[in-house]
Amino acid sequence: VNWINGVRADTVDARDRGLHYGDGVFTTLRVHAGAPLLLERHLDRLARDCVQLGIAPPDRDVLRGEATRACVGAERAVLKIIVTRGVGGRGYRAPETPAPTRLVQRFPWPDYKEEYWTRGVRLRVCATRLGENEALAGAKHLNRLEQVLARAEWSDPHIAEGVTCNRSGEAIETTAGNLFAVHGSKVSTPSLARCGVRGVMRGVVIDLAQRLGLGVAERTLSVEELLRADEVFITNSVIGIWPVCVLEAASYVANTTARRLQHALAEYEPGYA
Amino acid sequence: VNWINGVRADTVDARDRGLHYGDGVFTTLRVHAGAPLLLERHLDRLARDCVQLGIAPPDRDVLRGEATRACVGAERAVLKIIVTRGVGGRGYRAPETPAPTRLVQRFPWPDYKEEYWTRGVRLRVCATRLGENEALAGAKHLNRLEQVLARAEWSDPHIAEGVTCNRSGEAIETTAGNLFAVHGSKVSTPSLARCGVRGVMRGVVIDLAQRLGLGVAERTLSVEELLRADEVFITNSVIGIWPVCVLEAASYVANTTARRLQHALAEYEPGYA
Q1: Second label for B80, Cα 20 to 30 Å away, from A60, A80, A180, B71?
Q2: Is it the case that residue B90 has pLDDT exceeding 70?
Q3: Residues on chain A touching B195 (C-beta within 8 angstroms)
Q4: Is B15 in Cβ contact with A105 (below 8 Å)?
């Protein structure tokens, strides 16, 4: 089900800059009991990412209303909100006063296996590398070819996600989520200063870890360090927190930290219970 | 005027992967006397770029027919052909058998000043850098946010184009064209192994230079080298070849090589005369 600028519609203008240049941003959230979870945080991120690209952020109340209405009646679903710079002639230069396009889409719930949450998921390391650009880093923009190429590397349904690395081979994230590692009592997550998406759930987990008295270090994290970690887990706003049980040749038996954070998340937002 | 999969239509499916991920490629060509110029070369590039991204290239005869029909009756125009991976659910993973979308769009001729072709254009150097990724380099794909951000850096109508550099500060291209420099009798153009778009006109100019007995070296080209070159010129399939008269503090009086190549281009394809 799609709404474009608040109106039910299944097509977008063929001149939209989102299609021509990937000139826009998006966010994806979990719908539970007819409501979008963590909506204010998602509205924050949309606004922040728009500003990063120089797009005038849509009115927050309008977007909140459209997102909320789109979830009515949906027990469990996924909501995706796209904001593009709007329709705009030929050429990279934006119109003087562009009118951003708002696209709200509701998708059926993917029905992930319960064991992904409890026992964990299997991951691989992708060969596709992430280019680096401080001007785009952190934003969830519509230029996602690297993720498409990385996701095309495997079709084994037992592998839930792939770790993507920068050109130096340092782990950055997964194709659709963020990455955390635990070594002893230390929790760390890759720095996203040069590439990667600053996920809403990543921010929530960093906040929750702090409340639990665990610091999270944002730092360079090599694949080697991931492989010899005590625990690895991944996050995004749809899945919440998934422990990792296997990454390439490494397997992880502990998931104490992921478990603690899952409990904290379920308390913070019961829709993730 | 827009055609989608051969049918007149002004909107595309809101689930198209071109919009969601920039998951597609495009090419832009000059229309002259009712016909698209260098069409076979553009069809080659679309097919090659599709293969680079793992998209099944559309039938060449179908695409040729659609492009040709779209130009009928247009004395001068610009034609843009987009091929996306098609409509495809939620998530980066492509459907098992995606049906690529073909979007053919005709735009009015931009009416460039005659002096751009004769005396040349003014250029600036953009601050926005190009990220590097061998998997995407060379292809004219739909992930064009870097070009959008670079083009947003200036609004002075006297500046026609901006030079974009990689993270090391080496010149790669302009926001919408390729770059050539002449030092003495040596012509060079930046290597596009890690970033940049392998333009159709760039290929034509390299071929023409060869026929004229001028080699073109594809190599690393610093901004310093551009500034102290005897000549600089830029190319794309809409403009053809434009000499550069000013780049930042540097000005160029010679345009002998650009002039020779313009003549050779007009002989090769009279639509560029």
Answers
A1: A80
A2: no
A3: 131
A4: yes
pLDDT digits (tens, 9 = 90+) for A75-106: 999 999 999 999 986 699 999 889 999 999 99
The DSSP symbol for B141 reads B
Confidence at residue B111, expressed as pLDDT on a 0 to 100 scale: 86
| C-alpha span between B87 and B192 (Å, rounded) | 30
HSE-CB of B17 using CA atoms within 13 angstroms = 29
Mean pLDDT for the stretch of residues A233-250: 98
Cβ contacts (< 8 Å) between A135 and chain B: which residues? 128-129, 146, 149
CB A25 within 8 A of CB A142: yes
For residue B228, the tally of other CB atoms under 10 A from its CB is 11
ipTM of the complex: 0.97
The C-alpha atoms of residue B163 and residue B179 are separated, in whole angstroms, by 8
Q: Is the pLDDT of residue A6 over 80?
A: yes
Q: What is the DSSP string of A139-157?
A: --BS--HHHHHHHTT---T
Q: For chain B, positions 152-191, list CB contacts with chain A under 8 A.
A: 152, 167, 175-176
B195/A21 Cβ within 8 A: no
Per CB-CB distance under 8 Å, the chain A contacts of B142 are 19-22, 145
Among A217, A131, A56, smallest CA distance to B194 is for: A131
In which band, very low, low, confident or very high, does the pLDDT at A111 lie, cut at 50, 70 and 90? confident
Stretch B139-144: mean pLDDT, rounded?
Answer: 98
Chain A residues close to B22, C-beta within 8 Å:
21-22, 142-145
Chain A / chain B CB contacts < 8 angstroms: 181
Helix (H, G, I), strand (E, B) or coil at B143: coil
Residues A99 and A101: their CA atoms lie apart, in Å, by 7
| Residue among B173, B175, B189, B235 flagged as catalytic | B173
Segment B18-34 mean pLDDT: 98
Q: What's the rounded Cα separation, in Å, for the pair B242 and B265?
A: 12
Cβ contact A23–B141 (<8 Å): no
Provide the pLDDT confidence category of residue B216 given band limits of 50, 70 and 90: very high
Say yes or no for a CB contact (<8 Å) between B144 and A21.
yes
3-class DSSP state for residue B150? helix
Residue B257 is among the residues annotated as catalytic for this protein: no
Percentage with pLDDT > 70 across chain B: 99
By CB neighbour count within 10 A (0-12 exposed, 13-18 middle, 19+ buried), where does A263 fall?
middle
Return the residue matching tokens 């071109």: B18
What the block records as the tokens of A261 is 């954070």
Residues 205-234 of A with CB under 8 A from B: none
User: Is residue B89's pLDDT more than 80?
Assistant: no
| Chain B from 2 to 41: CB within 8 A of any A CB | 2, 4, 9-23, 26, 28
Whether the model pTM is above 0.95: yes
